């Protein structure tokens, strides 16, 4: 039984209620319509890389069921749909354009607009064409220039209808996890490559913002996954130092170049052995800090941090980052994530809705040049059970979503400029290295029949949107 009620709140006029997905996680058609391998297709073939040996070939077949999926979004009353473009569908083998791939997104956009749903487009949600990985991927500066060509092609095709453009989703994962810890594609474990990937993705972002701005785009942004790195004992210098390191690698290495045009001094120092300074060219930071129209914030959980190796470790950080952040390649063997006894989701991520409020408020206080914020992902995986009548009474997920929405309201009341909220995810889907084991959807997908069933959380979210619109 769901317990938590929405707190009465007057939401700002025009506040956007949406849901999010990503191409690789839902589309399927892995090698149809001219699409070639992305790094995730290739990674899925590495034995042991993905739980259950799962792949992305069919995923939830959104590529073929797109009109019905858009109808489902309309039935939920979504204002906006955040989706990503598969680069390997649009430019499958490096540079040549695949019109059939682009056409899929053109049809999707038309379908959304026809249903009165705002398309919120992300250019890069982790699925680099494998053809570019074979040229050293994001460790190669040239990839940033390929990204701008790809972004320009997509803008030329969709810019007449899509108003909101996001360059990257969670560069932390696609650089540091993909190239450093190896838990994400392309599965490399090379500190130098990881640090180069961070910088080259920043550069790609800045170049694309400038290119799309010149082409006429008016709403340009990026989505970061940010955390509150909370020292277990704020009076213990070892714990405080661990929190500083995590804050540097998970937050400030992204926020400061983007919003202030400089890498933090402590980050440059920590990453000296991995050659960060060497990959920065003289004009890069002025390109990277091109003004933004919005910042997307993805948030699932906080991080309580210790610097003591014996602190009871848990694996709560996103995508296995607990292991990666604590691994020697970043020069710290001793970042651990002790438990504070909070409830946890099926990802073993702790539930602490107040962390979202804290983060949104803190960003406004810490960054003078902060653009408007959108919560572009928030949600939870639980092991759903299907009732005899086929319904899914996912009260924990419902409570998670409602309690986080309540905290967004509190953040706005405290002065944070938050203009939208997107629940992750519309559909159960391919959860990266966890395969199909973890379900985040507000709509259940039966992975055998691919049938969609709105869960209680989806109904509740729809009722919330209706109530806000009616107020
Ligand atoms: C985020 C990703 C998204 C999804 C959620 C659970 O890190 O952006 O694709 O996997 O986590």
What would your notes on this structure say?
This is Beta-glucosidase. InterPro entries: GH (IPR017853), Glyco_hydro_1 (IPR001360), Glyco_hydro_1_AS (IPR018120), Glyco_hydro_1_beta-glucosidase (IPR017736). It holds the Pfam family Glyco_hydro_1. It catalyses: Hydrolysis of terminal, non-reducing beta-D-glucosyl residues with release of beta-D-glucose. Belongs to the glycosyl hydrolase 1 family. With 471 residues, the chain is an alpha/beta fold. It has 17 helices and 12 strands. Helix 8 runs antiparallel to helix 9 (191-214). Strand 9 (373-377), helix 16 (395-413) and strand 10 (418-424) form a beta-alpha-beta unit. The protein has an 8-stranded parallel barrel, surrounded by 5 helices. The protein has a two-stranded parallel sheet with strand order 6-8. Residues 313-329 have low confidence and may be disordered. It has one domain: TIM Barrel, CATH 3.20.20. Bound molecules: beta-D-fucopyranose. The site of beta-D-fucopyranose has 13 residues, from loops.
């Amino acid at each position: 039984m769901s317990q938590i009620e929405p707190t009465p709140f007057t939401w700002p006029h025009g506040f956007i209620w949406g849901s999010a997905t990503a191409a690789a996680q839902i589309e399927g058609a892995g090698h149809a319509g001219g699409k070639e391998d992305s790094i995730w297709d290739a990674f899925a073939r590495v034995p042991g890389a993905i739980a259950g040996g799962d792949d992305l070939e069919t995923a939830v077949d959104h590529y073929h069921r797109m009109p019905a999926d858009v109808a489902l979004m309309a039935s939920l009353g979504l204002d906006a749909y955040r989706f990503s473009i598969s680069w390997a569908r649009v430019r499958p083998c490096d540079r040549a354009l695949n019109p059939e791939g682009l056409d899929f997104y053109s049809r999707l956009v038309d379908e959304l607009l026809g249903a009165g749903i705002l398309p919120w487009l992300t250019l890069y949600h982790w699925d680099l064409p494998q053809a570019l990985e074979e040229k050293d991927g994001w460790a190669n500066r040239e990839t940033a220039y390929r990204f701008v060509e790809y972004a320009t092609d997509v803008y030329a095709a969709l810019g007449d209808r899509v108003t909101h453009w996001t360059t990257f989703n969670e560069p932390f994962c696609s650089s540091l996890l993909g190239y450093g810890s190896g838990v994400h594609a392309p599965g490399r474990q090379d500190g130098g490559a990881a640090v180069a990937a961070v910088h080259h993705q920043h550069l790609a972002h800045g170049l694309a913002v400038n290119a799309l701005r010149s082409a006429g785009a008016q709403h340009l942004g990026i989505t970061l996954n940010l955390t509150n790195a909370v020292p277990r004992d704020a009076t213990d210098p070892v714990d405080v130092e661990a929190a500083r390191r995590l804050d540097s690698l998970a937050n400030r290495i992204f926020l400061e170049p983007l919003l202030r045009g400089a890498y933090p001094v402590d980050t440059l120092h920590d990453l000296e052995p991995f050659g960060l300074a060497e990959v920065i060219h003289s004009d890069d930071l002025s390109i990277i800090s091109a003004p933004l129209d919005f910042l997307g914030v993805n948030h699932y959980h906080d991080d309580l941090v210790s610097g003591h190796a014996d602190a009871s470790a848990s694996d709560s950080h996103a995508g296995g980052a607990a292991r990666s952040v604590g691994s020697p390649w970043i020069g710290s063997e001793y970042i651990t994530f002790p438990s504070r006894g909070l409830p946890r989701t099926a990802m073993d991520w702790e539930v602490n809705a107040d962390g979202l409020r804290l983060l949104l408020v803190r960003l406004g206080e810490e960054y003078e040049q902060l653009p408007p914020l959108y919560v572009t992902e928030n949600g939870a995986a639980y092991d759903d059970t299907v009732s005899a009548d086929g319904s899914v009474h996912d009260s924990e997920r419902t409570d998670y979503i409602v309690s986080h929405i309540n905290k967004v309201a509190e953040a706005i009341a405290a002065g944070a400029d938050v203009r939208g909220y997107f629940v992750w995810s519309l559909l159960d889907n391919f959860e990266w290295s966890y395969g199909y084991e973890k379900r985040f959807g507000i709509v259940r997908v039966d992975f055998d029949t691919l049938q969609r069933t709105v869960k209680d959380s989806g109904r509740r979210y729809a009722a919330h949107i209706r109530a806000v619109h009616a107020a």
